[in-house]
Write a structure and sequence with these properties.
about 230 residues, Rossmann fold, OB fold (Dihydrolipoamide Acetyltransferase, E2P), 5-stranded parallel sheet, 7 helices
Amino acid sequence: MLISLCDDNASERAYIKSLVLDWSLRSGAGVSVLEYPSAEALLFDYADHCPDILLLDIEMPGMNGVELAKSLRARAEAVQIVFITGYSDFLSEGYEVEALHYLLKPVTARKLGEVLDRAVVKISRAEKKILVPFDGGEIALPLHEIRFIEAQRQYSVIHAVFGEYRLKTPISELETRLDEYFLRVQRSFIVNLREVLRINRAEVILKSGEAVPISRGMGKTVGKRIIELF
């Protein structure tokens, strides 16, 4: 497994690298660690050395860590991103780029180990897909491309990044095929929590701008699940 470490501070890089190598010995996970002093240096090398996990400082001269993460996500890169920062001001941006976790400096061996353990579990678990009808046949639709699912009588409509898919399958059955990032927010709606931008009392607003109605009092449940997952 390849872990890339991007931080403009050489002593910080050395410290985090030592923690990663200690975790590797304790966990038995074989790792290689590459170090980068800037976001630009990492991007230049990215095609040849695409990491499984990226430990990323936020406050760097030039392109900062958030901008780097957005660039990778725009290219649909699935790397597990862990932000390392001295400030908590960037939490909303971390959610936007689906960061696995925030680690506040000074980083401890225990906290870093817990986050790396989580990353390994996510990497080892292949992304689930569901079969949906398309052009007279079927395609395997990755779950992360689903924004929300809507029940329409005996049908379910999957609203996805690249279009809509209508299935003659009850929404309750579809629910069993999804992962932990999906939540039934109302009798007729399931939302991909990775797509939620904000929440109010009556609906969730997705990053696409779409609004999905939620049951009364469901807003707190949605918020709690998002905090637990991200």
